[in-house]
Design a protein that fits this description.
The protein contains eleven helices and 33 strands. It is α+β, with helices and mostly antiparallel strands and 676 residues long. Strand 9 and strand 10 form a beta hairpin.
Length: 676
C-alpha cells in the first residue's frame, strides 16, 4: 500500500487462501499486524465506501509521520518493538505463541448502504436514483438489529426536517424535505437478527431520520455524535441535538482526541480510559459505534469485538464491496491531528431488563461449558457464545434445551430466560487400518487383507512361508528382516511380507535377474551355471520361462558376468571345472578358431606369453584356459576384451564375429624350484 503523494510504502498486504488478508506494518515502531480477516478479501477499490482502504491510508500515513517526527508515545513504540522481536525470533515453521481471550465478533450481519437497505430512502432530486443509507445509519441500524430493540418507533411531524448535503460529486447540493412520520414502524419482526428485506429497509431509514441524515445518491452523511442522543437522549456537544427516539437505557459519547478536549467531563477522557471502556463493552457483548477519519473523509463503523492481549478490535465497516469486516490494531500514542479516531458511542444498553442463562451437561461422557460473557444475568438481547469442552475420553454430541444442533461454539440470543444443556458421550477410540499383503508364496498373521485397530495398539506381525519358500524381508510401513516383528497403529498402515524360494531353479533366478529383481550389487545370487544357461537361451532365442515370453538381453548378460567375475563369485557358485554349454572336439575346435601362442623369457623364472585367437565363424561362447602347474602364477597384461578369472586362469568371451581376432597378453612367474 503506497502513499500516492510521497511514494512511501505504507503497509504490506498479503492475500490469504482460501479467503482473507493480512496487513503488516513497514516499521518496527508500529504494531506488526495492523489488520487481518479470515472471512472477507481485501478490496483495492479506491472509493469512499471502501472504509478499510481509506482508513489504512490515513492511519499508516499518520503513524509513520509521528515516528519520523519523534512524537509517538515512547511506551507504545517499545511495546511494538518487543512484539516485532517476538515475531522475528520465532521459528518460521510454527505459529507465534499467543492465546488471547477473544470477545466477538458479536454482529451476525454485514449490512451495506444499497438495496434492500435503502429501499425506503428518498430519491435524489438531481440523479433520480435512490439515496444511499449513509454509514452512520448503517452502523446504527446494525446495532439496533443486534439488540432486536425496539419493535416500534414513532416519529412525529415535529421530527421532520429538510435534508441538505453536497456529496462533492459535481452535481451540487441536494435539498430534500424529509417527512419523519414515514419512518415510523410498529411490530418490526427481527427474526433472530435476520429480518426480512422490507424490515431492513424500515430499520435503516428510521435510523437515518433519527440522526437527521443528509441524503443523496452519491453519499449520505451526518454526525456520529447524534447517535447517543437519538438512542438515549444523551450528551451532545454540538448544536442541533436530535430528540431521543429509540428509548435506550444508555448510550455514552466519549473521546480521547485532543481536538475535542473542550467536551464536558466525563466525555473527554484519556486514551487508556477510552480503550478500557471500549474493551469492557466488548467483554459484555455490547457493540459500539465509532467515528473515524479516512483519506476521503469521515466514516462511522461498528466495533463489535476485542482480543485481550492488546488493542486489536473487530470492526464492521458496513460496505458491500469486499472488505466488510476486519480485526484492526487501533492507533495508540498519537498526538493531536494524527489520530484517526474522533469519538465513540458506547455503553449502548437498550433496556434495564435482564435475563438468566442456565447451562448444564448430560450424557454418558463429561465436560464443561464456557460462556462469553460469563455472567448468569445478562441484558436482554445480549448474544452469548457457548463452547462445549469435553473431558478426556469424551466428545461433544449436541445441544439440548433452548439451543439445538451440534455447532460448537454456538451463539444464543438472550431474548428471554434460557436453559442450555451440552450433551457429551464417551469418545470412541480413533481407529486405523492395517493392510497386509504377501509377495511370494505363504501367509501372514494378521492374515492378508484389511484389519482395523484402535489407535496405539501394538500389532504382532508374523510371516509364514510355504514349503520351498523362505522369508526375506518386510516392505511398506515395516522394513527389515526380523520375523516375527510388530507395528504400532498411529495411522493407517500397509505391510508386505516378501517371501523367496528357498531353492532356486535356473529359470526362476535368470528370470528375476532379467527383470531386474536381483540385487545388482550382489551378483553372487546367480551361479555360473545359470549364466551359461542364460547364454544358451540367448543364443537359441529361447524365452525365459518365468518372464512370460521375454527373451534375454545380451547386454544384461555381459554386465552381470563382469560383476560376477569381479566379485569372485566362483567358490559360492560352482564346485566343478568350467564347462561351456557345448564342449568341442579338437577337430571341431580347429574349424571354429585358429590359435597361436608365443613365449619370450624376460628374466629368470619369468616369461611373457601372447595368445592370438581368430574366429573362423561366429561364436557365441569361447573360453581360454591355462592349466598351470602348482605354484605358477599369471599376471594379465591385456585381456583382449575377455572376462578374466584369476583363480581358474581363464578368459571368457561371449560373442565373437567371424574373422574377429582377440589377443591376450600375460606374464608367467615360475617358482625357483621348478625345472627350467
Amino acid at each position: 500500500l503506497w502513499d500516492e503523494t510521497t511514494g512511501t510504502s505504507l503497509a504490506y498486504i498479503f492475500d490469504i487462501v482460501p479467503a482473507g488478508y493480512l496487513v503488516v506494518s513497514t516499521d518496527t515502531m508500529i504494531a506488526p499486524i495492523v489488520a487481518y480477516s479470515y472471512k472477507s478479501d481485501f478490496s483495492w477499490e479506491d472509493v469512499a465506501e471502501n472504509i478499510l482502504l481509506q482508513m489504512l491510508k490515513l492511519d499508516m500515513h499518520n503513524r509513520l509521520e509521528a515516528i519520523s517526527e519523534g512524537i509517538m508515545d515512547r511506551q507504545i513504540v517499545v511495546k511494538n518493538e518487543e512484539m516485532w522481536g517476538k515475531f522475528l525470533n520465532e521459528d518460521s515453521t510454527g505459529p507465534v505463541e499467543r492465546s488471547p481471550t477473544v470477545y466477538g465478533p458479536w454482529l451476525t450481519t454485514d449490512w451495506h448502504q444499497h438495496s434492500p437497505y435503502n429501499d425506503d430512502c428518498p430519491l435524489d432530486p438531481i440523479t433520480g436514483d435512490r439515496c444511499v443509507v449513509g454509514c452512520v445509519a448503517t452502523a446504527l441500524s446494525q446495532i439496533l438489529n443486534y439488540w432486536q430493540y425496539p419493535t416500534t418507533v414513532t416519529f412525529t411531524q415535529s421530527d421532520s426536517y429538510t435534508s441538505e448535503i453536497d456529496p462533492s460529486d459535481g452535481n451540487g447540493t441536494r435539498t430534500i424535505p424529509i417527512d419523519a412520520t414515514r419512518a415510523s414502524f410498529s411490530g418490526l419482526l427481527y427474526n433472530s437478527c435476520n429480518p426480512s428485506d422490507s424490515a431492513k429497509a424500515d430499520l435503516c431509514f428510521a435510523a437515518g431520520v433519527s440522526v437527521r441524515m443528509g441524503y443523496s445518491s452519491a453519499g449520505s452523511g451526518t454526525s456520529t455524535a447524534k447517535v447517543a442522543p437519538a438512542l438515549a437522549g444523551s450528551y451532545y456537544p454540538f448544536s442541533g441535538k436530535p430528540p431521543e427516539r429509540w428509548g435506550y437505557t444508555s448510550a455514552d459519547l466519549l473521546t480521547s482526541n485532543t481536538d475535542y478536549n473542550w467536551w464536558e467531563s466525563p466525555h473527554y477522557v484519556s486514551e487508556d480510559l477510552l480503550y478500557d471502556q471500549l474493551s469492557a463493552n466488548m467483554q459484555l457483548a455490547r457493540p459500539a459505534e465509532m467515528a473515524i477519519t479516512g483519506s476521503l473523509g469521515g466514516h462511522a463503523i461498528v466495533v463489535d469485538g476485542w482480543q485481550s492481549d492488546g488493542r486489536s478490535y473487530h470492526l464492521n465497516f458496513g460496505w458491500y464491496g469486499g472488505s466488510s469486516t476486519a480485526w484492526y490494531a487501533l492507533p495508540s500514542g498519537l498526538p493531536s491531528g494524527l489520530n484517526i479516531i474522533r469519538y465513540v458511542v458506547l455503553n449502548i444498553v437498550p433496556t434495564s431488563t435482564t435475563q438468566s442463562l442456565t447451562v448444564n451437561t448430560s450424557g454418558s461422557g463429561s465436560g464443561a461449558v464456557g460462556k462469553v460473557p460469563n455472567r448468569s444475568s445478562l441484558t436482554r438481547g445480549t448474544h452469548v457464545l457457548l463452547t462445549a469442552v469435553p473431558d478426556s475420553g469424551s466428545t461433544f454430541a449436541h445441544w439440548e434445551g433452548d439451543l439445538a444442533g451440534s455447532t460448537n461454539p454456538a451463539c444464543i440470543i438472550m431474548d428471554g430466560d434460557k436453559s442450555v444443556t451440552a450433551h457429551f458421550v464417551q469418545a470412541s477410540p480413533t481407529q486405523y487400518t492395517l493392510t497386509m499383503a504377501v509377495d511370494g508364496s505363504g501367509s501372514t498373521d494378521p492374515s492378508v487383507g484389511i484389519h482395523t485397530y484402535d489407535e496405539g495398539t501394538v500389532v504382532p506381525l508374523t510371516a509364514t512361508p510355504d514349503a520351498g519358500w523362505m522369508f526375506d524381508h518386510w516392505n511398506g510401513d515395516v522394513t527389515g528382516s526380523t520375523n516375527p516383528t510388530s507395528i504400532t497403529m498411529n495411522g493407517d498402515k500397509s505391510v508386505t511380507a516378501v517371501l523367496t524360494p528357498s531353492t532356486y531353479s535356473i529359470d526362476y533366478v535368470v528370470a528375476h535377474w532379467v527383470n531386474g529383481a536381483l540385487d545388482p550389487n550382489d551378483p553372487c545370487q546367480i551361479s555360473l551355471d545359470q549364466i551359461l544357461q542364460a547364454i544358451a537361451w540367448w543364443a537359441n532365442g529361447t524365452p525365459v520361462p518365468q518372464t512370460g515370453g521375454q527373451t534375454i538381453d545380451l547386454d544384461k548378460i555381459l554386465d552381470l558376468i563382469a560383476k560376477w567375475a569381479d566379485a569372485r563369485c566362483i567358490e559360492s557358485s560352482i564346485s566343478q571345472p568350467l564347462a561351456l554349454p557345448k564342449a568341442l572336439s579338437t577337430a571341431e575346435a580347429a574349424s571354429v578358431v585358429e590359435a597361436t601362442r608365443s613365449i619370450s623369457a624376460t628374466a629368470e623364472g619369468q616369461a611373457k606369453v601372447t595368445v592370438t585367437i581368430e574366429a573362423k565363424q561366429a561364436i557365441t561362447g569361447l573360453a581360454l584356459d591355462e592349466d598351470l602347474p602348482q605354484g605358477w602364477t599369471i599376471t594379465p597384461i591385456d585381456n583382449g576384451g575377455a572376462t578374466f578369472n584369476t583363480q581358474e586362469a581363464q578368459w571368457l568371451w561371449l560373442e565373437l564375429n567371424a574373422g574377429e581376432t582377440k589377443t591376450v597378453r600375460y606374464q608367467v612367474e615360475i617358482p625357483s624350484a621348478a625345472s627350467a
